[in-house]
Amino acid sequence: MVEFLDITNRQDWQACESVQRGLSSPHAVPGPLSREEDAVYQFVTMVARGYQGERAWTTGIPEPVH
């Protein structure tokens, strides 16, 4: 199991490095996330809310009005 996890972690590391190299290219243009990246959008939004001091996630239950 340890060997399997080591192999997959190394592959993930290589993939992340490749993406970072691509993003550092002068030809890389940031843009909106596609519809297929909804989970990424939700994660980025959650992190941004946390940095802004807001509640990072919601339970779907409305907050009580004070």
- The termini sit apart by 52 Å
Structural class: mainly alpha
Question: Which runs of at least 5 residues are low in confidence (pLDDT < 50)?
Answer: none
Q: What is the makeup of the main sheet?
A: none
| Tally of contiguous helical segments | 2
Describe the global form: extended
Q: Total strand count, please?
A: 0
**SSE string:** HH
Strand content: under 5%
Could you report the average pLDDT, rounded to the nearest whole number?
85
Return Rg in Å: 18 Å
What is the subunit organization of this protein? single chain
- Percent of residues in helical segments? 40-55%
Task: Describe this structure as you would to a colleague.
This protein has two helices and no strands. It is mainly alpha-helical. The chain has a domain of 25 residues.
